[in-house]
TrEMBL record, chains A, B:
<dbReference type="Pfam" id="PF00392">
    <property type="entry name" value="GntR"/>
</dbReference>
<protein>
    <submittedName>
        <fullName>PLP-dependent aminotransferase family protein</fullName>
    </submittedName>
</protein>
<dbReference type="InterPro" id="IPR000524">
    <property type="entry name" value="Tscrpt_reg_HTH_GntR"/>
</dbReference>
<dbReference type="GO" id="GO:0008483">
    <property type="term" value="F:transaminase activity"/>
</dbReference>
<keyword id="KW-0238">DNA-binding</keyword>
<dbReference type="InterPro" id="IPR036390">
    <property type="entry name" value="WH_DNA-bd_sf"/>
</dbReference>
<dbReference type="GO" id="GO:0030170">
    <property type="term" value="F:pyridoxal phosphate binding"/>
</dbReference>
<dbReference type="InterPro" id="IPR036388">
    <property type="entry name" value="WH-like_DNA-bd_sf"/>
</dbReference>
<dbReference type="InterPro" id="IPR015424">
    <property type="entry name" value="PyrdxlP-dep_Trfase"/>
</dbReference>
<dbReference type="InterPro" id="IPR051446">
    <property type="entry name" value="HTH_trans_reg/aminotransferase"/>
</dbReference>
<dbReference type="GO" id="GO:0003677">
    <property type="term" value="F:DNA binding"/>
</dbReference>
<dbReference type="GO" id="GO:0003700">
    <property type="term" value="F:DNA-binding transcription factor activity"/>
</dbReference>
<keyword id="KW-0804">Transcription</keyword>
<dbReference type="InterPro" id="IPR015421">
    <property type="entry name" value="PyrdxlP-dep_Trfase_major"/>
</dbReference>
<keyword id="KW-0663">Pyridoxal phosphate</keyword>
<keyword id="KW-0808">Transferase</keyword>
<dbReference type="InterPro" id="IPR004839">
    <property type="entry name" value="Aminotransferase_I/II_large"/>
</dbReference>
Length: 473, 473
């Protein structure tokens, strides 16, 4: 056994037998060197090992502290991830499904035939002919003023008073998340994510070298507020990043009541939230679900959204409601992406100034609703009884739960050989605690090609289940 | 005096009296703690202070080393910058000159009336009408294949064998620089820049937390090869970032002979170079200057360029010749900007597939040459005799040298009150060693507005010089 392991073992006992209590400060590295007689390197390695095990946590310039007892918190399933490594997996996945030959059930993007409305294309066509559409210089942060004004008006219509100066235009929604996260954190900070969440959030955490605390989903409320508050109390969390509306990949939308309670917790602890709300417009009901931003009285929430899911992801135009963090975000933007294509911003201003967008959204919503119902009915009828799928009235994803003994990554790999893509768990959960879910994109009309793909999926699941049952008879 | 200062003072003497020789390893922190009796924090602070003074340097996982004696290297003016803080200055500057009311002599962008050719706008107009121009999903890294193929062919025509897979499309040239630098470095690494260089390079260094070694310009060769090789020998430089063609802001183009010698030094020491070559097409002569990439036999050079200076900066389309670093750069891209507007990429493919681009470039070059000559002749005739301006046959910048007692930042501020912008030294030199230069954009036709601006500039300079001479009579 290495010396550092010896020391770590010894310290672990002190924590487990509660000689050292939760949130108690550990001896400094220097003190520990003197106390233990081990070298500085040995002490550092031991502390880092304990941190990796989630037994202690570090605060910048303050040292190390005992984490909440694992047993105490186990019932709430708060998990710590010290080093995120998901980008390579996502990279390989996206490359594997990129070809047009692949049936895109695993795609993150809505069927493009439902986007890029005729009016939008007409607007782009007309503007593209005109020299004045190409601004003299690229639009600097925070982006096109008219576009920010229109976005601000849309917030205002939802009961969120907004000034154009609150908005920063970004290169799509992912850029909005990245910039917000970078503005609020430094390498080594703790952030909080939902346990199962859009891979872009995990990638951003990896890029910025952040430690991730996760809270589990709640079967009814969507978000487990008790686990959430406990995580906030137990860890020095700099910022949370969550999806509350049409959550990707699961699909649920958190109720207004839960959102209000979440807002109260945020305010009570003065915790910031980056709200990823890119599916906000894809609700099926009569009333648009409120964003968390609606409940924000103290500028604690950075609301990120984009036109990628409603007009087209190829435009790369998103935004963040940055409020008082606007200048900070612009500074980071100036050092990285600089600005957003100015022609597209001009074209969006022209298009959004008319009623086209609302009409387009209405059509888009009803089409997605019709398609999702069709997929749901089909899957609900034909999936093996051991699989379940929930219907949530928004967006274009279905999240299929498989028996626990199935590994969705293997299912993805086998279907890919048949030129069919599905999105496995591994993309949405860097902790890899659960592997028995797949996400299905249901924004494509069920033609022969899609029908065949669904049949292959169901057949593969049935085979794997049968195989398992045979082996365990 | 703090303990750490005491210790630093003591160690400094050991270095200065050559008890410790250049590149000798210092005692480890732990050894120094034992040897000196000071605490770990004190020793760390002392080492960091010596590093900040450039007396020692650090190598990751290897410890601290004595730097080349300052006296020995002083004649070559190699400088170290441990913490770059330029972004806020650039941010304020760009915001201050953004209004269309401001006469844009300080702009970095070429006059947009010379870009966005009629044929290009026609192409955009035709494609924008067509649904097929909007790809199904955003084009993932490395970007549109056809566009990469065209770019690869253009390299091949210049004698640089290139495969489309060598190229990664980026959101403009600045994104190309940022991605390349991020792929090649980690926070705390040393990089080498030219002493006076485009602010984007400094901003990238700041963003990534890099230490910057600078080498001075050479009055004849452009780059001082002796200083360059000395810097490489003296510091653990991870990568260099330089402009060799139509250097921004100075304007010089390094000769083929010097480039070949530079390439030999790079190869001898196996040092990577990120070559910022965004002005490559704006030469006035009959033959396009070679890029450093041309001399690269070992894939040590990442060549960055863009369409911003020839077709329009609003498009945000650049690229990097990444070669074997392509996948690494794509990984970083997937975690940050994700992709580049797919419609614009499609439109560029269409436009570049015909001979329009070459014709457009020919017109652009001759227009810029005519304008630069006009500006140069005017300034050379009317500037106070204490000011000098050199004519380099490329690009659209003139770099005016003022008497050393003038501060270009004050000149910029005074002219801004008259709604005239000029670009002061401070934007191009984070060390702020020189303050007596301004950059003038000469891509605008000399109409009454520009004429008045030039007169105001000359008048201000004359007044300041007169004032100085009066005070020092």
């Amino acid at each position: 056994m290495y010396k550092s392991e010896q020391l770590a073992q010894h310290l672990k006992q002190l924590i487990e037998n509660k000689t050292w209590k939760a949130h108690e400060k550990l001896p400094s590295l220097r003190q520990q060197v003197e106390r233990s007689g081990f070298s500085l390197i040995t002490v550092m390695n031991a502390y880092q090992e304990l941190e990796a095990q989630g037994l202690i946590y570090s605060k910048e310039k303050s040292g190390y502290f005992v984490a909440e007892n694992q047993h105490d918190s186990a019932e709430k399933h708060v998990a710590i991830n010290h080093k995120i490594e998901i980008n390579s997996i996502v990279f390989k996945y996206l490359k594997s499904i990129q070809s047009e030959q692949i049936i895109p059930l695993g795609s993150a993007f809505p069927n493009s035939q439902l986007l890029y409305s005729a009016k939008l294309i007409q607007t782009l066509g007309q503007l593209a002919k005109q020299r004045r559409s190409y601004e003299q210089t690229p639009s600097l942060p925070p982006g096109n003023y008219e576009l920010r004004k229109i976005i601000a008006q849309r917030y205002a219509m939802q009961g969120i008073p907004t000034d154009p100066s609150d908005i920063v235009i970004t290169s799509g929604g992912l850029d909005a998340l990245n910039l917000s996260l970078q503005a609020m954190t430094q390498s080594g900070d703790y952030i909080l994510l939902q346990q199962t969440l859009f891979y872009g959030a995990w990638q951003a955490a990896e890029r910025l070298g952040l430690k991730v605390i996760t809270i589990p989903e709640h079967p009814v409320d969507g978000i487990d507020l008790e686990a959430f508050e406990q995580a906030i109390l137990n860890y020095p969390i700099k910022v949370c990043l969550m999806m509350l509306n049409s959550q990707n990949p699961i699909g649920f939308t958190v109720s207004d009541e839960i959102k209000l309670r979440l807002a109260k917790i945020l305010h009570r602890h003065q915790i910031h939230l980056i709200e990823d709300d890119v599916y906000e417009e894809l609700y099926y009901g009569n009333k648009k679900p409120l964003s968390m931003k609606y409940f924000d009285q103290q500028n604690l929430i950075l609301h990120c959204s984009s036109f990628s899911k409603t007009l087209g992801a190829g435009f790369r135009v998103g935004w963040v409601y940055a409020g008082k963090y606007s200048e900070n975000i612009q500074h980071i933007q100036l050092m990285s992406t600089l600005s957003v294509n100015s022609f597209i911003q001009n074209a969006l201003v022209e298009y959004l100034s008319h009623r086209h967008y609302e009409k387009h959204l209405k059509t888009l919503r009803s089409t997605l609703q019709r398609l999702k119902k069709q997929y749901f009915n089909y899957l609900n009828t034909h999936l093996p009884t051991q699989c379940t799928v929930d219907y949530y009235p928004s967006g274009y994803f279905l999240w299929i739960e498989l028996p626990e003994y199935l590994d969705s990554t293997l299912i993805y790999q086998r279907l890919l050989e048949k030129k069919i893509s599905v999105a496995p768990n591994i993309l949405f959960n860097a902790t890899m605690q659960n592997k028995n879910h797949i996400r299905i994109n249901c924004s494509f009309e069920i033609n022969t090609r899609i029908q065949t793909a669904l049949e292959h999926l169901i057949e593969d699941l049935q085979q794997q289940i049968d195989l398992h049952l045979e082996q365990h008879e």
